[in-house]
Design brief:
Layout (H helix, E strand, L loop, with lengths): L20 H14 L14 H5 L9 H12 L2 H18 L29 H6 L13 H5 L15 H8 L16 H11 L13 H12 L11 H13 L7 H24 L4 H27 L10 H16 L4 H5 L2 E3 L2 H4 L3 H9 L20 H7 L3 H5 L3 E3 L3 H30 L8
Antiparallel strand pairs: 1-2
Helix pairs in contact: 1-11, 3-4, 4-11, 8-9, 12-13, 13-19
Protein name: RGS domain-containing protein
Organism: Zopfia rhizophila CBS 207.26
Keywords: Membrane, Transmembrane, Transmembrane helix
Length: 448
Amino acid sequence: MVYSLTYRRPSHVSSRQSLSGEERQQSINESIQSASSGMSHGIPESLSFDHIIAGGVCPPCTTRDFINYLKYIELSAENLQFFLWYRDYCRRFSKLDREKDLSKPWTPQHVDDETPARPKRLSPETAAAFKGTDFTSDSQIAEGERANPFFTPPRTSNDQTPSNLKGSRDSMDAYEESSAGGRTTNHTQRASDAFQSAGLKWKPLSIQPYRGEITRIISIYIADGGARQLNLSAKERTTLLHALQHTTHPSAFEDIIHTVEWTLRCQAHPNFIRWTICNGNRLRVVFARGLGVGGIVAGFVIVIVLTLSSASRAWRVLSLIAFFIGVSTLIAAWKGMCVVLHGMHHRHLRPWELFTSDDELASRNAKNHSYDSPDSQESSNSFEDEPWVAKYEKRNLIRKVFDREVWIQEPALRHIQDTIFLQSIIGALILSIVIAGIFCAFPQGNFF
């Protein structure tokens, strides 16, 4: 079986934007039914996208490894982070009771044709009675917000939150604090700016469940300049914001989640599996390729010298050993594998893993559910300032070639590597026999 893990885009598709929502959804459904990544070939079912997301694989193919690959290699971790948040949000939303009815499912047929009502003037006696309550007509509240009958002013200090909504509010308190230096971010202002840039009015229904969380998600993933801004078209962003004006139901994200999931399944996941097959870092692979070329050159030197000498033709068969070692090493290295590491089923630690203790690495691998906790949603995916970057740059070339190794725990990945290694052995054996046989056909040179 030949493993070909390259992404193949249909001839009629030039980019992910060229596919309609129905085509992307059909592609996703076919991928789920076939337990594959979609538009990829050779990926076993045990390493499918759904198995990785469900946490059914071992290192180095876990969800955390997938996020690290997207963050440090493809520089697009926000897609998977948003996808994981959305799955968790759907799960939490489905567990709501009566407050779920406050956010109806969103359909494209919904239009915003409501006109704001004129604010009613209250008598002095009524205004005095409502002073200091949620029904106050404080001048600090904008005129458009007072006109909205669903607008809820800022809660007073003596406000009592219903027990059935405390969980949703408390679960989002961690979003307020930025992970960088304890700075706070005005998510409401950033979300308001996003609506304004899309030509929409910021008038959320604050009584809807998880409205505060949705505001923060808009600020982080949707608004321009967000910490993890998604690569959305202007039409997709406007459509999403229009839906989030009216509801916090997960169906409001339906269009963009199809785009994000299609990108993950059909592009990121096959690339991740192909990258994971490489058991050595870049310098180790270059070193292995150099050894392969050296073995081939040594084989040619041996066979040419023996051909020009007076030695019998049988001695020329010795060059087959050098050819075999060189060609097999070169073929494996061309696939990103080092045959020495593969012999032990080891792999090099990634640069971001090198400076983590063994106990921390084992704990991280054992707790795949902590890959991206809500507390870290505020943080950016930028890693230039992470400590390991400067430390890794200071390592000399020899040390990088022989970096720390760790055993590959995922059986399916080891099976793929065994198949590639067997292919390199068979290919090297055939080529070595052909080359050695050609030189054996020449007569003796008798030059020395």
